[in-house]
């Protein structure tokens, strides 16, 4: 964890605060599923992002046989999920992550002992939503009072001085008791924090809230590509939909690849397949390319006067920014223009550097000015394991054999008395190859694997045409034009896919002065 950069420039002329956003979540993986795209978008914009996680997810179920030994071993699962969260944050670019109660950074101090809040667990109710179990650990989050949990969260707020705080709505997404407790405690902490001064008085609290129609679409089993995932279709949608008017619809499509990679890092909890994912229940749903938020101060029916907007940054109250411009002494330590922010002892320094911003500069422009070339990072695609390569080889052999046997199929027609050959066999063979490449691309998101499949299909097809291996093989793959197209077609398709499929595009995006300039 690193110290947050709390301002840009020096007090006086050129002083402007960096937008600061605090996310409060219950378990590792919640932050990525519900707000992963927003986290990455804010980091790319130069905002200071702090993630506060209440528990380590000790009570979670575990996906897959390789990690099954962690299930029920709360300390081991907690330690493993810490590493998953760290990996996800590296993908999203978040450098300031804290666990609630974990030392001063997590709100301990002033009579609040350092402690661990644990996962309370959950059971499914007859209403299709999650509920608190009958028994839970004495250290469970829900075993603590709202006031106790709120005290730790409030201490973090007082240190970070966020312009925005983001957490769950009252329903907790699908009713998880820890989500509800985090909501209740964050609301209470925010109420007290707002009395800390003029800037805090203008901070805003947003809730993650998904509209009913978006939830229906996310769980739609008829969505293109869903049938290829192997996930189960939902019977009853567990999402508790938004009741308050929407305030923010944050477009995260430009960072959707990074969000998917961060979700895949939570391997004990999430299975990712293309643009879909499933939790331990195996029920598939879309990875949302828009993340929705409501305003705690405006539960409805009328929306907030500043809403709706299409960016979380636009939800920051400009008055809070102006108060810090006018009262730099209360806005926290300033960073000299061009100087790197200091790092906490034993930590790496943040990747952003501060710049002086002229007074009166609008907020989005100030955010753009805070971003430097050194802040752009490229997160490599995950390595593909032996199982993925074995799968790719099996697919390649099947396509090479089927395509080689099928590609010479043709029908001769005589329009106007002129014979015309319709190479339908070649079309079917190339279609099979294209579908196989698309399947591998969306399943593993690996350019190397896709190119490898294309090359292997072509090599195996060439082998099938060698009469020296077995008499008559040259009748399977001939020296004709259709066979030549079949030999090189899979490699050409693999190259096209490598440059065009969204699932294979690298997560790095060059930062420009215009945050929309690099959107497709």
Descriptive labels:
520 residues; three-stranded antiparallel β-sheet; disordered C terminus
Describe it.
- There is one protein chain.
- The chain is of the alpha/beta class and 520 residues long.
- 36% of the residues lie in helices and 11% in strands.
- It has 14 helices and 14 strands.
- The chain has a 7-stranded mixed beta sheet with strand order 3-2-1-6-7-12-8, with helices on both faces.
- α11 runs antiparallel to α12, α12 runs parallel beside α14 and α13 packs antiparallel against α14.
- The N terminus and C terminus are likely disordered.
- InterPro entries: GlcNAc_PI_deacetylase-related, LmbE-like_dom_sf.
- Pfam families: PIG-L (PF02585).
- Keywords: Membrane, Transmembrane, Transmembrane helix, Zinc.
Short description:
This is N-acetyl-1-D-myo-inositol-2-amino-2-deoxy-alpha-D-glucopyranoside deacetylase. The chain is 36% helix and 11% strand.
């Amino acid at each position: 964890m690193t110290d947050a950069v709390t301002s840009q420039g020096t007090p006086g002329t050129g002083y402007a605060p960096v937008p600061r956003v605090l996310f409060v979540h219950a378990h590792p993986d919640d932050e990525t599923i519900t707000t992963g795209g927003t986290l990455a978008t804010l980091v790319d914009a130069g905002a200071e992002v702090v993630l506060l996680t209440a528990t380590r997810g000790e009570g979670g179920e575990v996906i897959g046989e390789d990690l099954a030994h962690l299930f029920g071993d709360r300390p081991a699962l907690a330690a493993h999920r810490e590493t998953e969260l760290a990996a996800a944050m590296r993908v999203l670019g978040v450098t300031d992550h804290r666990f609630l109660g974990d030392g001063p950074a997590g709100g301990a101090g002033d009579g609040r002992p350092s402690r661990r809040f644990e996962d309370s667990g959950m059971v499914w109710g007859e209403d299709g939503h999650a509920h608190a179990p009958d028994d839970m650990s004495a250290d469970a989050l829900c075993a603590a009072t709202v006031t106790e949990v709120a005290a730790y969260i409030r201490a973090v707020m007082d240190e970070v001085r966020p312009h925005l705080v983001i957490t769950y709505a009252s329903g907790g997404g699908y009713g998880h008791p820890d989500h509800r407790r985090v909501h209740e405690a964050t609301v209470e902490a925010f109420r007290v924090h707002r009395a800390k001064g003029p800037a805090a008085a203008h901070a805003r609290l947003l809730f993650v809230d998904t509209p009913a129609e978006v939830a229906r679409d996310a769980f739609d089993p008829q969505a293109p590509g869903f049938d290829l995932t192997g996930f189960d279709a939902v019977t009853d949608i567990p999402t508790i939909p938004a009741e308050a008017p929407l305030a923010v619809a944050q477009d995260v499509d430009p960072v959707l690849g990074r969000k998917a990679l961060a979700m895949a890092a939570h391997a004990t909890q999430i299975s990712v397949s293309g643009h879909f994912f499933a939790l331990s229940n195996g029920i598939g749903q879309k990875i949302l390319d828009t993340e929705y938020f409501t305003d705690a101060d405006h539960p409805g029916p009328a929306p907030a006067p500043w809403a709706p907007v299409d960016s979380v940054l636009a939800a920051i109250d400009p008055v809070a920014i102006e108060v810090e411009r006018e009262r730099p002494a209360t806005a926290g330590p300033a960073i000299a223009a061009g100087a790197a922010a200091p790092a906490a002892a034993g930590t790496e320094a943040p990747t952003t550097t501060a710049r002086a911003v002229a007074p009166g500069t609008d907020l989005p422009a100030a955010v753009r000015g805070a971003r430097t070339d050194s802040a752009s990072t490229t997160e490599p695609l995950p390595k593909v394991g032996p199982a993925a390569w074995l799968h790719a080889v099996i697919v390649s052999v099947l396509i090479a054999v089927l395509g080689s046997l099928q590609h010479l199929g043709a029908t001769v027609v005589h329009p106007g008395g002129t014979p015309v050959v319709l190479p339908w066999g070649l079309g079917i063979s190339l279609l099979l190859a294209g579908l196989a490449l698309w399947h591998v691309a969306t399943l593993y998101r690996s350019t190397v694997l896709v190119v490898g499949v294309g090359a292997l299909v072509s090599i195996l097809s060439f082998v099938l045409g060698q009469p020296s291996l077995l008499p008559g093989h040259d009748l399977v793959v001939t020296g004709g034009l259709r066979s030549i197209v079949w030999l090189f077609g899979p490699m050409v398709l693999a190259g096209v896919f490598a440059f065009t499929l969204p699932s294979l595009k690298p997560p790095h995006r060059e930062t420009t002065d215009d945050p929309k300039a690099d959107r497709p």
